[in-house]
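Entry 0007
Protein: 3-phosphoshikimate 1-carboxyvinyltransferase
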Amino acid sequence: MKFHKTKELKGELSVPGDKSISHRAVMFGSLALGTTEVTNFLQGADCLSTIDCFRRLGIEIKNGPEKITIHGKGLDGLSAPSSILDAGNSGTTTRLISGILAAQPFESVLTGDDSIKSRPMRRIMEPLTMMGADIVSLNGNDCAPLRITGKKLHGIHYRSKVASAQVKSAILLAGLYADTVTEVTEPVISRNHSEIMLGTFGAKVWTKGTTAFIEPRPSLKGAKINVPGDISSAAYFIAAGLVVPGSDILIKNVGINPTRDGILKVAKAMGGNIELLNVNHVGEPTADLHVTYSRLHGITIEGDIIPTLIDELPVIAVMAAAAQGTTVIKDAAELKVKESNRIDVMVEYLSSMGCCITGTEDGMIIEGGRPLTGSIIDPHADHRIAMSFAIASLVAEGETEILNSDIVSISYPSFYSDLRNLYG
Ligand code: S3P
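Output (structure tokens):
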């Protein structure tokens, strides 16, 4: 798809439902007894992979236009899959479902696309094996495909080296089936959607500092879940509104959970005008975000804030390229093991657009303020890279072409039409 520099972006939009919360609603609804109804579910390819896996495990899931309905069968209601489980491109599906499969009285094989088959799974294999699970990487490279043979599990206290909600959630889900309380301590707190939603379904989950605890064998009951708009999807429009001169955008009903809101803090620290309207603190907090064009300046982004904006760092790099001065991103080595190596890909293609950017071991250094020019971008089959460069193209002279641009359907199928609607 081809893009050109644009005049101001104006109008309002609602971004689709949160990806992390949508996955969890399907998974936890499947393990709960009774009916779960989910509204504003993200119809992205990743979440559809989660639905497909749970259907193969014997759960009836109706994906209707207004809501999805899950007929959960309780903690012991899954049945042996008739075929290989395919998580597609979804790391969340792969890692979270592994925690569930580790405790089932049957064997499963879990695979995904080429990206999933190269992403690190040792991080979940290690703690789940400590709990008693039998997980084998079939290619012997600590990646999918995984053969998971369910076992009786015991509670552990796991100290994770990485701040990862996928790792934490896999262990907590296995902890539902353990013999004693399970604890996970993270170096820095990661997104806490599992803790919140497991509580909604009736699990006993609590936290102390950066440790999450779960009691085994709760009776989970079906619930109604309304998924807030995804702040990771809103991030592209936050960035667009801030960097395209004259812009004025209202993004409605965005999740602003404090374990996810680092983009708001960073945008403000860079000098961005973002106003939070209609703030609602019931359940997962939400707000409407009013974003207007701002003269951004570079900052240093490091430490505890990183897990709260890990998926937004590619588009933050675009904001940094448009800002005056230097932005330093540190403590973000996790970027190398996402859907692509997001440090290498951002450095390669922002450089190709004329930005002065250097990759480091755990981040990037961006000298902002140079004019950008159009380029040909290969997003390396990474949805967030494609959307980040669509935003960069809006301030670049000439034409930008994004190859394989429909990869955005992983997390935001209507991204290009939502963007076009703001052109005026
Ligand atoms: C997610 C956690 C994060 C994030 C991913 C979704 C989740 O991954 O990058 O897009 O839903 O738990 P990590 O847990 O690997 O940091």
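Curator remark: The domain at 19-226 is CATH 3.65.10.10 (UDP-n-acetylglucosamine1-carboxyvinyl-transferase; Chain). Residues 20, 92, 164-166, 169, 190-191, 310-311, 334 surround shikimate-3-phosphate (CB under 6 Å).
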